């Protein structure tokens, strides 16, 4: 039995869900994500969220029976793709713009990844929610950018470097704070794309 199961009210056993507005639900999710970034996963509690959003703990347990379920729902609510509108007609410029867009949200995304690093290895639902919210949509959008470049004839379809572009870009987002103690901001990621990614693809 986990700690969150141990302190769960009996009311959580019911399948009923109280009616809350989408706006109120988003307030709960925003509070969860804020606490994750500032305190880490282990420090997030239903009691703390209830206090910060001025609601009863039982209200939260009626909606989400456990902390992992609550955090997973908050992550899914945060799903967004920053690259879908990028289409300049040039693969090199598209990749520069994608790097800049990724760098603009680096602090928030890296904070979530660091906060959830250990927890997602132990909870499959959290791992799935994290991938759905932060990883898969943006990898798909980045691959679409690359596919358009291939279709325009800028890069050969079988170019071996194409496979590694998402890992290069998102890996740098995650690792620069670890290696250098600084976020991979927009300017840094654009320089990285120009120095590493574009040459690997044979682009100017």
From TrEMBL:
Keyword terms of this UniProt record: DNA-binding, Transcription, Transcription regulation
Ranges of biased composition (kind: Basic and acidic residues): 1-10
SUPFAM superfamilies cross-referenced by the UniProt entry: Homeodomain-like, Tetracyclin repressor-like, C-terminal domain
Glycoprotein is among the record's keywords: no
Segments forming domain HTH tetR-type: 22-82
Origin superkingdom: Bacteria
Keyword Magnesium attributed: no
PROSITE patterns, A to Z: HTH_TETR_2
Pfam families, per the entry: TetR_C_11 (PF16859), TetR_N (PF00440)
Coiled coil feature spans: none
Region (Disordered): 1-23
Residue ranges flagged as DNA-binding region: 45-64
InterPro entries cross-referenced by the UniProt entry: Homeodomain-like_sf, HTH-type_TetR-like_transc_reg, HTH_TetR, Tet_transcr_reg_TetR-rel_C_sf, TetR_C
MF (Gene Ontology): DNA-binding transcription factor activity; transcription cis-regulatory region binding
Protein's name according to its UniProt entry: TetR/AcrR family transcriptional regulator
């Amino acid at each position: 039995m986990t700690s969150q199961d141990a302190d769960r009210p009996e009311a959580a056993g019911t399948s009923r869900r109280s009616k809350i507005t989408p706006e109120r639900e988003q307030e709960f999710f925003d509070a969860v994500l804020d606490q994750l970034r500032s305190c880490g996963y282990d420090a997030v509690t239903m009691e703390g969220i209830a206090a910060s959003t001025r609601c009863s703990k039982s209200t939260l347990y009626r909606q989400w029976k456990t902390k992992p379920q609550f955090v997973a729902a908050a992550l899914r609510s945060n799903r967004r793709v920053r690259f879908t509108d990028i289409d300049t007609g040039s693969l090199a410029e598209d990749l520069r713009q994608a790097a800049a867009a990724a760098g603009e949200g680096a602090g928030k995304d890296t904070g979530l990844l660091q906060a959830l690093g250990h927890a997602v290895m132990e909870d499959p639902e959290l791992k799935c929610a994290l991938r759905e919210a932060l990883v898969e949509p943006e990898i798909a959008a980045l691959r679409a950018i690359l596919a358009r470049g291939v279709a325009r004839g800028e890069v050969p379809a079988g170019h071996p470097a194409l496979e590694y572009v998402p890992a290069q870009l998102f890996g740098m987002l995650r690792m620069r704070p670890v290696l250098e103690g600084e976020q991979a901001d927009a300017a840094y990621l654009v320089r990285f794309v120009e120095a590493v990614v574009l040459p690997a693809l044979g682009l100017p």
